Prenyltransferase alpha-alpha toroid domain-containing protein
Amino acid sequence: MGSKLENYINLRAVLRYVEERRHEDGGYCFVSLLNETNINDTYYAVKIYDLLGMEVPEREKTIEFLYTSLKPQQAVVAISMAIEGLAILGAKDLAEEGLSLVFEKYRPLEGKFAVGLGGSEEFGTATPLEATYWVLRAFKAVDHKISPEEKEKIREFIESFRKGDGYGVKQAITTMTYQAIFALNSLDYKTPKTSHFHRCEAYGGFTEVPYSLPPYLEPTFYALRGLKLLGEKPRYVKEHINFIRALQNPNGGFRRSLEMGISNFQNTYRGLRALDDLLSF
């Protein structure tokens, strides 16, 4: 396959895991027996293939699935994922059509940061900061320009989540700290320096809050992404690699912790992306 990742994990099993969960409509569902294809799983399937430099099987079907999934009732996080997925698949014109749905729910000049919020990638119900992160990813994917006035309103909103040198609702957490600094960076503001990620670094993996255990894949993924954005390196590269390798399940997918967890697409992508980041430090 030619990927450096295959020296560390069973990459053939990963591809088999993803491929077996592709359905006739072009969408994906991580629970293979269910025919409930969805944007989240399809987005991460696209991201996995893109990371590995591979063509998405029956690409046109997946484009059609994501495009027809762009509906007003979808949460802004899902709409943003579909837009980014379409852009990765080369359907930028269709992705741009989805922006009208984003503008119905995300109006920073009116002080509305994701009307209704709805579903979340991480927390059950999306935080407005999470919605901002995904909207800005979608904007970046289609090169949508944001006005200076909108940028400043979004920056002020992001800073309202600042907790010390990190970001969160009640306290700084790894996921929201990364979402905040990514968002500020994508708005062309100077990336805020933070020691949060280093304080969450365990001897193999990262945690959501400093000096706590056990580590999980989600904060490990976000912390490594954050350190890369800051131009900094983790202390325990080899141990982090071993931690991620241990999260691959027999079916080829990745779980979130050493103790338990079934495979799903988002953690499989996170495992691959985090491992790829670690091999580049």
